[in-house]
Amino acid sequence: MTKYTEQELLANLKSYFGFDSFKGNQKDVILNLLEGKDTFVLMPTGGGKSLCYQLPAIISDGTAIIISPLIALMKNQVDAMRGFSTDNRIAHFLNSSLSRSEMNQVKEDVRTGATKMLYVAPESLTKEDNIDFLKSITVSFYAIDEAHCISEWGHDFRPEYRRIKPIVESIGRAPIIALTATATPKVQHDIQKNLGMLDATVFKSSFRRENLYYEVRPKVSASKQIIRFIKDNPGKSGIIYCLSRKKVEELSETLVVNGIKALPYHAGLDAHTRSRNQDMFLMEDVDVIVATIAFGMGIDKPDVRFVIHYNMPKSLEGYYQETGRAGRDGGEGKCISFYSYKDITKLEKFMQGKPVAEQEIGKQLLLETSSYAESSVCRVRQLLNYFGEVMTEDCGNCDNCLNPKTQFEGKEYVKLALETILAVKERFKAGHVAEILAGKVSSEIKTYHHDKLEIFGAGNEKDVKFWNAVLRQLLIARLIDKEIENYGLLKITAKGKEFLQRPYSILITEDHDYEEADGDLNLGQGTGSLDPVLISMLIELRKKIAKKHNVPPFVVFQETSIEDMAVQYPITIEELTNIIGVGQGKAQKYGKEFVELIAQYVADNNIERPQDMVVKSVVNKSGNKVQIIQNIDRKVSLDTLAESKGLTMVELLDEIERIVNSGTKINIDYYIKEVMEEDVVEEIYDYFRTSESESVQDAIDELTQDDYSEEEIRLVRIKFLSELGH
Description:
The chain is of the alpha/beta class. Mean pLDDT is about 85; it is low at about 515-530.
């Protein structure tokens, strides 16, 4: 390949792209490639990776083969390149979306030398006629974009990427440049090994993006929180990621009915709709795209101001890649994620049926994600640590830095944790070590007889969660290391061994407990939290109304509803229907006095309500609620109904309870008569009539002593709430 001086490169950069200087280590990367050397580029999103192969391609003899994973991404890149050139033939893509005549035109432009960059999907690369064609041309180099797709430890593993090396060899060897925005040390090694480029020159940029703000919120009324956030940031572009297509559609519709310009994007939409929705976002005809991970790879919209994760992704690599789409112009970028451990367990269930090794990898990646979410340590330090980059200071610009949890002296805890790792000969993962410390007897602990260790239960004044938090902070402090390739076995570093010899003061913090999040408390800037004065007033009113109707207080409104009222301050019946657990029926029957009290309270105390808007909901298209009601109206047996919906009886009763709690009357007498004795029904019914507690668990604890089953108790409770609560 032709050698270029720095001045010649700068002249070409200015001529073709209009830039006066290179960014970061772009220049060194390009020079290395032009010298004919294999090159590995690890550069965060927004760092200018594409230029690292675009400029060399333009000024080199022959055509560069750029292997890219997505058709949408190729189109985007080709359009961008054509924007820099007067000749549209400079860049083409070769994939299944082309007609035969278009395909022939592409090949002709490549043969004549007019095309400097040919974008190819790995699937297209495997076709015999394409291989034969590529053998006949001069290949300047191969660029493998989104190279993390090669590694099964990467966040977007694609088996077809594994076939790149033999195909490249059959076409003819030329220098290789592999590029990715996210790679742990393990993934980096995998990429280089699989492409046969272990001797490649590695260029690694810092993963630190100082303009990005990271925050994790408990997943409580997430849709409501999202609407408020967007309303507080009018006219700003943003991406919201969901795990399922169904949730993408639902959330997109909810945003639209609440006056937000939003569109969905997922693989289930036809190619035309996907392309149109993407273009409308890029052209700013809409502000928000609600998407699965199918959206965004390689999307170059510099002014995305927020990236919201409705669900935590499957890996921290995926998370970093997706959040990296915010603030690529160096301006504001808010990255907000909603976390519930239930989402993590759902993802674990999805992995069932896959090969054991794949499940192990998947579980390990999920563990990293939940650990990140629950940790109270600086978010940026955690992310950088995961990618093998040491950051000695906190970022000062994430939720954990801005709202730090209290630190405490951890010297003895650290010492105990390190001694336990040694006691099990550095052959076990964090979860196992934490169980030993907390004295928790699990099947795995028993299998290895670790309950017989002297150190077993030495830290039993603290629970497993606490010890996991300690171990995570030891990882960040580099006292221990995690052997990723061995599924996360903990090893003590030289620094950790020094600590054991001469222990010193070390401060640690406890993790967040998002599962115990109390209502919709953290709703973003300018929003409130529970108003204790109003709560006590609402509870008094509830008592009064319960007495008037001769029902227990929880039949009127449950505690969660009261708490939500003390955050939202609803002052109309319509607003009241948007409170947790309040449907139209309940609002009409009991709501008038509540909204009058709240309106008076708001006026008397000059309260600025968290939102002066009604969060409108969309009809549940899944039809579960409607279908359940219709089937019960038709007196379908609940066993049959549960089976037809693919639910357990417990899950079906959960659904019916939700329907009843929101204000819809349901008559299940036909089923109760079928499965229960009349006197049993009466006795359980009488319990609820006199009970002050709204807790299902309290009822179960008390009534199961009289040999009533949980199912019987819940059935009668549904009957009771439906008859007296509506």
